[in-house]
Automatic annotation (TrEMBL):
Entry GO MF terms: proton-transporting ATP synthase activity, rotational mechanism
Name of the molecule in the record: ATP synthase subunit a
Alphabetical keyword list: ATP synthesis, Cell membrane, CF(0), Hydrogen ion transport, Ion transport, Membrane, Transmembrane, Transmembrane helix, Transport
Lineage, opening ranks: Bacteria, Bacillati, Actinomycetota, Actinomycetes, Micrococcales
Function field: Key component of the proton channel; it plays a direct role in the translocation of protons across the membrane.
Family per record: Belongs to the ATPase A chain family.
PROSITE patterns found in the cross-reference section: ATPASE_A
GO cellular component labels: plasma membrane; proton-transporting ATP synthase complex
SUPFAM superfamilies according to UniProt: F1F0 ATP synthase subunit A
Entry annotated with the keyword Transmembrane: yes
């Protein structure tokens, strides 16, 4: 339900921003445009270059906004859980980017060229491939998609647990603890508010890290040499 709500709200915001777009942007349009330019310039063009970025900007932008929306639900009263704090959705995002990563590399270099570039790096003595190639295989075909999903879900779960602990402690100290301990409720409440603000930052940071790593992986897949 939280994911459905986040999706509807995100689509509504984007549709309204597009329909009401003006030459001189208002406050809401300006925020959306700043975020769009941030992904295009600071992620796609910075990592892939302007020429290659044009192809991947729409996908990277969509993934960034989607993850940001699903992350931020963890600090919205009444929702109180990030849509990405259950492993299924991070796996879906990771698989999407992984398929794009493989497709980009195979399309650019061909299957043989892609495997050669990634599994048999140039400039390495031949005997070293006995050790290096299995490591590269594990990195390319297992660790890259796995780390994308695990990093995202682990951060969202950790933040959710910290908030639960702080506000559960606040509830206990204020409503159930002995009078001498009730003052600790104020401490845990302030800590909960601080962690909430921190979680807003983490929500944006994790969306940024996800698309940055995705762009880096795509760039690695289309390069003929590493």
């Amino acid at each position: 339900m939280v994911r459905v709500i986040a999706t509807v709200l995100l689509l509504t915001i984007m549709v309204l921003a597009a329909r009401r777009a003006t030459l001189v942007p208002g406050r809401g349009q300006n925020v959306v445009e700043v975020l769009l330019d941030f992904v295009r310039v600071n992620v796609a063009e910075e990592i892939l270059g302007k020429k290659e970025a044009r192809r991947y900007v729409p996908l990277l932008t969509a993934v960034f906004f989607a993850i940001l929306a699903f992350n931020i639900t963890g600090v919205i009263p009444g929702l109180n859980i990030a849509g990405t704090s259950v492993i299924g959705l991070p796996i879906v995002f990771a698989l999407i980017m992984y398929v794009v990563y493989l497709h980009a590399g195979i399309q650019r270099q061909g299957l043989g060229g892609f495997l050669k570039t990634n599994l048999f790096p140039a400039g390495v003595p031949a005997p070293m491939y006995v050790l290096l190639t299995p490591i590269e295989f594990l990195t390319v075909f297992v660790l890259r998609p796995a780390t994308l999903a695990i990093r995202l879900v682990a951060n969202m779960i950790a933040g959710h647990l910290m908030l639960v602990l702080c506000f559960a402690a606040t509830n206990y100290f204020i409503l159930e603890a002995a009078p001498a301990l009730k003052a600790f409720g104020a401490v845990t409440f302030v800590a909960g508010l601080a962690i909430t603000l921190f979680e807003v930052f983490i929500a944006a940071l994790q969306a940024y890290i996800f698309v940055v790593l995705s762009a880096v992986y795509i760039n690695l897949s289309i390069e003929t040499e590493h």
